[in-house]
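Per reviewer request, we include the raw input and output of the structure prediction for the construct analysed in the revised manuscript.
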Amino acid sequence: MITKLLVANRGEIARRVFATCRALGVATVAVHSDADADAPFVADADQAVRLPGNTPTETYLRIDAILDAARRSGADAVHPGYGFLAENAEFAAAVTDAGLTWVGPSAKAIAAMGDKMAAKALLADAGVPMLPTWTDPAEVTAFPVLVKAAAGGGGRGMRIVRDAAGLAEAVAGARREAAAFGDGTVFIERYVERGRHVEVQIFGDTHGTVVALGVRDCSIQRRHQKIVEEAPGMLPDDVRAALHEAAVAAGRAVDYVGAGTVEFLLAPDGQVHFLEMNTRLQVEHPVTELTTGLDLVRLQLLVAEGEPLPVTTTPPADGHAIEVRLCAEDPAQGFRPATGTLHRFAIPGVAAEFGPARGLRLDSGVVDGSTVSVHYDSMLAKLVAWAPTRTEAARALAGALARAELHGVATNRDLLVRVLRSPEFAAVDVDTGFLDRHPEVFAPLLPAEQLAVAALAAALSGAAARRAAAPVLAGLPSGWRNVPSVPQVTRFTGPDDEEIEVHYRLDRTGALAEWGRKGPLLTDPVEEGSPVNTELPVVELVTATPDRVVLDVDGVRRAFRVHRAGSSVFVDGPDGAASLTELPRLPLPTAELAAGSLLAPLPGAVTRVHVEVGQRVAAGDLLLTLEAMKLEHPVLAPADGVVTELPVPAGGQVETGAVLAVVDPEEDPQ
């Protein structure tokens, strides 16, 4: 019997496992890097052991350090979570060799499924349907194809190639990313256009039972990584039955024990093709839990203790569950990861955390004040909605996301809301290329014409805060004069660092006498020299406090929640959210950057430099590659010109705002 469990992971999955352990009376141990010392998962555990360092290589990927932590804490079992060492056969073997209980499949099963090519050969013999596959790029004659890492996962090491010209570079890039898994082997398989990513949750025990627990649809993806998952998948009964049968056959082929997921590609013609088998608990396991009533972590612990599974046949699905992954990233900038302090993380209407819910469930690795580090994956939390029908679940989930307060780092929230509210999603017209075909979902929720109103709300809340803190005459309206004078002016930067200058004047009663916005309109640029933009809605001030402003906008009352963190101002309104930075009235001088300077968008490491100083480049040419948060980010030339500076060599670390390269747009002197 397991008495004390060490979770060899971090973030929300560590918290998820700890939640079940508390319910079962199992003591818990966390391991943490220096960067995670104050993370919520560490506080959730009964004990915690430091792993010195910050990067995964220094910490969560060190088998010796984790085993030492188990020894020092007295843990008698290890749960790997997902990611890091979860599908590492060497780790599984080391845990069992140390006399500890391993909560997962055998090292043999992990090794068999970890090599994707070997797994395909093994499962093909078991009758599992496969896609055409090649290991030699020279053998590929039909396109499109997908280049994949043999030991990869989570979308890393994957490239879609549509013609022979791009195959060599795709293979080279996939091999570089695959190196993160310790194996640079890649293979190539036929790419199915408009395919749906569907998967079956399986469970096995030591008594010979292997059972399918239902199908999930995970077709909405970015960079080959899932961001929206649902159960049960909306499929014909015969396809569902075929998936269950193939998944159980895959599990039986390797005498599978524990939680596993068999992933398939569903072609438009209804044909099912095996993709891979993940020998661990999946990120999206909550949708299965909410539609089956099963606690999958509890089942993992029971099976690890040698108990038989309490279910031996596929349970019927109860209702519908949809999960979204909230990530710290900017979808409009190629899903560029975001780092910093999460000043506020609040989602309304959550019925439960990490457990059963009739309504909204939140599995989060962060809380107010959490630091989003460059060292780890960008996922912050998972929000899941259960409802009797798919339509109700999607509507509830989108509504909660839209009302959430997510302050401090960019997130993919607006994208997720637009996907859930799209007619195509409602009609189950989904596949792995959904985002490529629907650029409209990348638009922010806040309409462009409403940004000025949000900025006005931010300015009025700031005025209210200053009046409330005034030592004398605190009740006097801000900036009021007996004789109307110049209006109050507050300057912000908004999306894409656009400057927004809000002008307003209050009368002696505190009412809004006039307002305007100077600067470019979000729809029509104002003429050069025009003082204040007049093409704005009629606004009346209803009430203003430091954290709440109510405005009547063209006859419709709108309430805005305002949260300040230093110079950052976060405005959440009925139409969407705005993240603004208030500029000082008298800005300090700053160092002038050379024309054509390219700055690091986030901390990271320069992995490769592709050009030399003095080289002429064209707009869009690849200059260097920056790696951060487990992903590569190309740095491209913004215009034709000559590379005049490359201050950071390959291998160099940079902070946000560091100059990576300078491309002089001027022509070469003749």
